[in-house]
Design brief:
Oligomer: single chain
InterPro entries: Acyl_CoA_acyltransferase (IPR016181), FkbH_domain (IPR010037), HAD-like_sf (IPR036412), HAD_sf (IPR023214), HAD_SF_ppase_IIIC (IPR010033)
Largest sheet: 8 strands, mixed
Strand content: 15-25%
CATH superfamily of the largest domain: Gcn5-related N-acetyltransferase (GNAT)
Number of helices: 11
Pfam families: Hydrolase
Mean pLDDT: 92
Protein name: FkbH like protein
Order of helices and strands: EEEEHEHEHEHEHHHEHEHEEEHEHEEE
Structural class: alpha/beta
Helix content: 25-40%
Shape: elongated
Radius of gyration: 22 Å
């Protein structure tokens, strides 16, 4: 296990005039992309780096040009108008739920870059001369690229459609969730899942209990240990698949189950993924007659995870069962404890999961 490294870029925001294309649209309607721009856009898209636009232009004029150039589909949440670039970049980050340090902005104008730097100092800034080299830079090179990475843009777009449907729904949230035909699948991870599991330990932040990165070697060690469960969580609904959205790293002992890591994508927070997993784990532990002890380490982003634990009934560990566990190896890790009780099956979604309580723990 290692500390989370400096994050890779999750979203690159493009200026248009003299950055993505040559010239100024107001002066020349027949603009063409700079050399290698299309190659850069497709390369980053294939790695799961989302891309958007922040441009001072008329949207009804600029967007058809992007469509004509065959580039419009690569951009999510485009901000094309006459406001400050920093406001556009902020709006994109807020809508995606991304920390500013995972956002990059490329613009030919030093004035525009300076304005963004003043308002959003954590956003990474690049010039038009940097564009061709972006795919070679480490911050645009995720440690792993999975099937989910390659379809990340499509999954986010489905999410925006889902959100639009929710805004138009007048009933309670639980009723809306039923209309989605949600399915959650919890499965034991295999070799093919490890890259996505590692990616989730890197990319999740708001719903990550510790912020600890488990690399491939550490995950393989847990996978080979009969006392540990490495579980991957996938979701889908009528709008399409969400892909792999969560991980559970669990050590099962006879008296206590040690939840070393629970992490879910921020994309599925509103769908109740975290609470569904905690409820399921609570029921499984109750059936096995074991207490639950969960590791938690505060970060600047995971307050929501602490709330989820406390809402599920976890409290600072003061039970003798916690003494059976080795001391945390990571600085700042606290432990929350729960005496579990049986829980009913979810009613707003279909849950498919292994029966952990049916398998006797090793120790």
């Amino acid at each position: 296990m290692t500390e989370t490294p400096a994050p890779t870029v999750k979203c690159l925001v493009w200026d248009l005039d003299n950055t993505l294309w040559r010239g100024t649209l107001l002066e020349d309607a027949d603009v063409v992309p700079f050399e290698r721009v299309r190659e850069v856009i497709t390369a980053l898209d294939g790695r799961g780096v989302l891309q958007s636009v922040a441009s001072r232009n008329d949207h009804d004029h600029a967007w058809p040009v992007l469509e004509r150039l065959g580039l419009a589909d690569y951009f999510v949440l485009p901000q094309i108008g006459w406001g400050a670039k920093s406001a556009s970049v902020r709006a994109i980050a807020d809508r995606l739920g991304f920390a500013h340090r995972t956002i990059a902005f490329v613009d030919d104008s030093p004035v525009e870059r300076a304005e963004v730097a003043r308002a959003l100092p954590e956003v990474r800034l690049y010039t038009e001369a940097d564009v061709a080299s972006l795919p070679e830079r480490p911050e645009f090179s995720p440690a792993v690229v999975t099937a989910d990475s390659r379809q990340r843009r499509l999954m986010y777009r489905a999410g925006f459609e889902r959100d639009a449907s929710r805004e138009g729904f007048t009933g309670p949230d639980e009723e809306f969730l039923r209309t989605l035909d949600l399915e959650v699948v919890v499965a034991r991870a295999g070799e093919a899942d490890l890259t996505r599991v590692e990616e989730l330990t890197l990319r999740t932040s708001q719903m990550n209990a510790t912020g600890v990165h488990y690399d491939d070697r550490a995950l393989r060690g847990l996978l080979a240990d009969p006392a540990h469960e490495v579980l991957v969580v996938a979701m889908s609904d009528r709008f399409g698949p969400h892909g792999a959205v969560g991980i559970v790293l669990l050590e099962r002992r006879r008296r206590v189950w040690h939840l070393k890591l629970l992490a879910t994508s921020c994309r599925v927070v509103s769908l109740g993924a975290g609470s569904t997993l905690l409820t399921w784990l609570t029921d499984q532990a109750a059936r096995a007659g074991a207490h639950l002890v969960a590791d938690f380490r505060r970060t600047d982003r995971n307050r929501m995870m602490e709330i989820a634990y406390r809402f599920a009934g976890f409290a600072p560990a003061d039970c003798a069962c916690a003494a059976e566990l080795p001391a945390p190896t990571e600085e700042g890790v606290e432990r929350f404890h729960l005496v579990p009780t049986a829980k009913p099956a979810p009613t707003a979604l279909r849950l498919t999961s292994p029966d952990l309580a049916a398998v006797a723990p090793r120790a």
